[in-house]
Amino acid sequence: MTGAILSLLGVGVIAEAMRLPAIPGQTYGPGFFPAVIGIGLLVFGAIYAMSARHPAQPVIQLEGEGIAPDEMEETAPERPFYGALASLVIGLVATIALWESVGFVLLMSIVLTIFMILLGVRFWNAALVAVGCTIMVYAIFIKILMVPLPAGLLAPLGL
What we know:
This protein is mostly helical. It has helices at residues 2-19, 32-53, 82-102, 104-118, 123-144.
């Protein structure tokens, strides 16, 4: 049932995306990304619906599998997620407050690095992935989508 609902939602998103007016001079209109998301919802909803109809049977049953649910240990988290929630809210508020002055590339690189470190990623791995992904997203928005993003502190470099 969930897969069918996701697929129907995808069809609705695609239909609404096609109704958005084209912008003169741009290859991609405002409905491009909503249409991509709608196609994803449609396809993955259909896959989910199909997999729910034919559940996969395990080829090998490992030791300990098949234990009755009432005999299994509870795997509740040891601590509440308030710290993670607070860091997310603080990160979003800081992003909104510093968006224009710091700029997209620098700000998103810092915020993504911090979030990845909080998730347990090593500093250098987090920093490299954050900077690389941020520059890639910036290039897509500037070059392909022609959407200006704030350069902030990096404006003297011509970003």
